[in-house]
Amino acid sequence: MIEAHGLCKYYGPFVAVDEATFSIPEGQIVAFLGPNGAGKTTLMRMLTGFLAPSSGRAAIAGFDVRDQRIEASKRLGYLPESGPLYPDMTPLELLRFFGEARELPPRALKQRIDAVGEICALELVLEKPIGKLSRGYKQRVGLAQALLHDPDVLIMDEPTAGLDPNQIKQFRENIQRLGRTKTLLISTHILQEVEAVADRVLLINNGRLVYDGALGDLEENGSLEEPFYRLTREPSAASGAPPPPTGPGD
């Protein structure tokens, strides 16, 4: 359902993503794990067609993201870290706007708005301006727009960033329910997030995939902390070399 073949992204001499190759079958919940700045967002943007790769290709449900973008987008829901929300709109207006942009027939659009409103528990705020909603409700609205066209694949970038513990718990429960019928790729740097929802882990560091496998195979003593540190620490730390000196104010 999600395929990456040799995806690379360069910004001049800087390598943001280097030869990423993997395939995610139907029905998996996959955590895309890595430290800040590792290349997670860049890779997800290439998978969704938001960003063109320097080389390589990506496909969603068998459709090439570059050459068959419209067909791929019909099967894809994308929730970026900062979702595409218009603060002056209400959730209801926003969902109608996106549904009409996707050319959903009026009856089908009403049914889908009702469905995603229930899934994301938006009934109490559907007609309240988005700008006045809490961070948690804004995330729910973002998820609702990503689910509006009932996609087979859902890609989410740091979906629980900025949420309080209760909101995180509710969001994880949503993810687990959605995983029964959809293929999910979730970017995060929060280890507890991975342990709570994922079947499989893709671990990226400095633009390169350094692990691809089952969550249980990566854990040590029931925890991801030590494997994550070992696979993502800087070379100087791994070799035991002292860190470079720092000057005043560093």
Helix and strand topology:
Layout: E1 2-11, E2 14-24, E3 29-33, H1 40-48, E4 55-60, E5 63-64, H2 69-74, E6 76-79, H3 91-101, H4 106-119, H5 135-147, E7 153-157, H6 165-178, E8 183-188, H7 191-197, E9 200-205, E10 208-214, H8 215-218, H9 225-232, H10 235-239
Parallel strand pairs: 3-8, 3-9, 6-7, 7-8
Antiparallel strand pairs: 1-2, 1-4, 4-5, 9-10
Helix pairs in contact: 3-4, 4-5
**Major β-sheet strand ordering:** 6-7-8-3-9-10
CATH topology category name of the domain at 1-75 and 154-162 and 184-236: Rossmann fold
What is the CA–CA distance across the termini?
45 Å
Tell me the radius of gyration: 19 Å
Keywords:
6-stranded mixed β-sheet; Rossmann fold; 250 residues
